């Protein structure tokens, strides 16, 4: 339940933020939120992270569909709160951007992702991108800590001997 709740809440936050960004930033100059550290700058991204692969929007969309299925399949075995939160955030990020790719112009599987958060010397991003990064960070933390999906601790060959 925690996995699903995190995913649903964060997808909703991402989509509301994107609607508000389009409504209030389209045709407007950048807006400072925290001086030059964080600004609001509306852009549409047909590619993947860092606007890479802009000619492969359909392929990126198909990969996002596959990634969604993999995360959903993996989530069936979750028994750890941290894993549930990490996978929920990962799913929210993948699907938050997937919604844009399916429903925004120029059309299904080719839609451009709404990005609007800008840091100095960093590509413009959105809430879904934050979810992906934090989710992957939590998953890596669990792996490094030796915590399995079910919450049990991984055993080494020395421990089992």
Structure characterization notes:
The protein is mainly alpha-helical and 161 residues long. It has 5 helices and 3 strands, in the order H-E-E-H-H-E-H-H. The chain has one domain. It has helices spanning 2-25, 57-75, 81-103, 127-145, 157-160, and strands spanning 31-34, 38-45, 113-118. Strand 1 (31-34) and strand 2 form a beta hairpin. Helix 2 packs antiparallel against helix 3. The chain crosses the membrane at residues 56-75, 82-103, 123-144.
Tags for this entry?
161 residues; mainly alpha; 3-stranded antiparallel sheet; 5 helices; 55% helix; transmembrane helix; Lipoprotein signal peptidase; Peptidase_A8
The number of distinct β-strands equals 3
Measured as a percent range, the helix fraction is 55-70%
Number of helices: 5
CA distance, first residue to last residue: 37 Å
The best one-word shape is globular
Strand order of the largest sheet: 1-2-3
Mean pLDDT: 94
Largest sheet: 3 strands, antiparallel
| Helix/strand order, N-terminal first | HEEHHEHH
Function: This protein specifically catalyzes the removal of signal peptides from prolipoproteins.
Subcellular location: Cell membrane
Pfam families: Peptidase_A8 (PF01252)
Pathway: Protein modification; lipoprotein biosynthesis (signal peptide cleavage)
Quick overview:
The chain is mainly α. It is 55% helix and 11% strand.
List the helices and strands and how they pair.
Blueprint: H1 2-25, E1 31-34, E2 38-45, H2 57-75, H3 81-103, E3 113-118, H4 127-145, H5 157-160
Antiparallel strand pairs: 1-2, 2-3
